[in-house]
Specification:
single chain, alpha/beta, D-Maltodextrin-Binding Protein, domain 2, globular, disordered N terminus
């Protein structure tokens, strides 16, 4: 975490950059995800938010295979920025310590992970699902990678200790639980589309999260996973808050992204953050959350650091 003394006033910025530079059209290739996951509605909301504050910033969404695919494409410079879950970012950095770093433009949202089951089943704890068919989300997506880390934290293997299902589409998961081809569906994020689809069915759904002891066990093995709470009322029939684990997800930049692009994206994101009516999908995409989530300023794209300093968000 960044030391608290580096966080300064989040007062409005008087002068951020020359108007001529900000009036220029700038194309940015933006890696998103497959349809049906949490990244898909977020990406659409983010593009709309950026266009509303910087109409000539030309964001070009690129449909990809999700977080892992985005990390790989960023390293190859096939895209300029991309959505990557915290779990995938941790894994990518661990597996590629000698490669140029992918830099943070911003956090997007935190991703609490949990299971959903039919309410007429006898499944109430994670251990009840061992040996049962479970939908883990499409391979390589942030949700599937998160599930692997969480289960490993409990000493479980998602492929050996369960009957794993990796659907081609996120949209297939809720249907598999509804028609009882699967016992449970794993998902991550707030208002995750698969959980929305499942809880909107007449029968609804019941959620399963780790116990307090299991959360401690998971975080002892993987400290980058944080304790997160899903507020009550997030889904139909879910009246009480649910405490689980998860991580922040990020907008990452390719290693050689021009600092001017990073600066402009940070500026536009900050303007969108301060808009009167931020989207429900982008409400957690803030400079404050970004600074709280990163380990050091070195994780940020240099253009973002320059904007944050000029905006007096950091020293």
């Amino acid at each position: 975490m960044i030391r608290r003394r580096t966080l300064l006033s989040f007062a409005p910025v008087v002068s951020l950059a020359p108007a001529t530079a900000l009036a220029q059209t700038m194309e940015v290739r933006f890696g998103t995800s497959t349809a049906g996951g949490g990244f898909a509605p977020y990406a659409a909301a983010l593009v709309d938010a950026l266009k509303s504050v910087d109409p000539v910033l030309d964001i070009k969404p690129v449909i990809t295979g999700g977080a892992t695919d985005n990390a790989d494409r960023l390293q190859r410079s096939d895209i300029d920025i991309g959505l990557v879950s915290g779990e995938v970012m941790y894994e990518w950095l661990s597996e590629h310590p000698d490669k140029p770093k992918l830099r943070v433009i911003s956090v997007i949202y935190s991703t609490p992970g949990m299971f959903a089951v039919r309410p007429d089943t006898r499944y109430h704890r994670i251990r009840d699902l061992v040996g049962r068919p479970v939908v883990w989300s499409p391979r390589g997506t942030g949700s599937a990678v998160q599930a692997r880390y969480v289960m490993q934290g409990l000493g479980l293997d998602i492929d050996r200790d369960f009957e794993p299902i990796y659907p081609e589409s996120f949209a297939d998961g809720p249907t598999m639980v509804i028609d009882q081809r699967a016992a449970a569906l794993w998902g991550s994020g707030y208002r995750w589309p698969g959980f929305v689809a499942l809880t909107n069915q007449p029968a609804g759904a019941r959620f399963i999260v780790p116990t307090a002891a299991e959360i401690a066990q998971i975080r002892a093995k993987y400290p980058f996973l944080a304790e997160l709470t899903v507020p009550g009322g997030m889904y139909p029939g879910q009246y009480e808050p649910l405490t689980t684990v998860g991580a922040w997800s990020y907008i990452l930049a390719r290693p050689d992204l021009d600092d001017g692009v990073g600066y402009r994206l940070a500026r536009s994101l900050y303007r969108a953050e301060r808009a009167a009516m931020p989207s429900k999908h982008t409400v957690q995409t803030t400079a404050r959350n970004t600074l709280a989530a990163i380990g050091s300023l070195d994780a940020l794209q240099p253009g973002v650091v320059r904007f944050y300093r000029e905006a007096r968000l950091i020293q």
